[in-house]
Amino acid sequence: MKVVVIGGTGLIGSKVVSKLNEHGHEAVAASPNTGVNTVTGEGLADALKGASVVVDVSNSPSFDDDAVMEFFRASTTNLLAAEAAAGVTHHVALSVVGTDRLQQSGYFQAKQVQEDMIRDSGVPYSIVHATQFFEFAKTLADSATSGDTVSVAPIKIQPIFSGDVAAAVGRTAVGTPVNGIVEVAGPDTFTLEDFIRQGLAAHNDPRTVVTDPKGLYWGAALKESDLLPGPDAQLGETHFADWSSEQ
């Protein structure tokens, strides 16, 4: 089947394209780099010709609250309209475990709007909720750094390797639409403090990591388990320690 991957040249999208093509599907990477802009609609109609499935793993280039909201509103509006015109029968979107619990954050408010638009579109869909990626431990640290100290909330996290996320998205894309959420997570649970500390150590980053009861996660205050998946989550095969040892 033809699968168009929006954001198909990025970290997750490039892996999804590769995995689908390896399994005999026609996976097409669609992004501004390939002449497809979902915010303006440029190139969308041509890209979706003959497509059975659209996978959206795109992300806003800006994390400013207003910019993120505008990106997901405009992009999802244009994408869903183009899918309806092209006869696409399955819309797959990558989102985040706990999105509905993170609504103090402007970013996750925008992700919730994206999800709601998909649900209301009438197009059969599957939303893949993933936990934080291994690769973003440093990004999380940077967002919570003052001087040489990283202060993080006392919460738990079950991070996942990007390759395992891509595999889950690919499996979902070629499966039957669930018209609901599929959760994916890594095989191990950490405190956020330990995850970031180990992630920084893998890159010989000397910053000190401490727990701060008032610490926020992308602007949101969280309960201890807000970032953890439910009991039916699909678990990736890659352990953080094994991944870290290869960095």
Automatic annotation (TrEMBL):
It comes from the Bacteria. One of its GO terms (molecular function) is protein-containing complex binding. Residues 7-148 form the NAD(P)-binding domain. InterPro entries: ComplexI_NDUFA9_subunit, NAD(P)-bd_dom, NAD(P)-bd_dom_sf. This is LysR family transcriptional regulator.
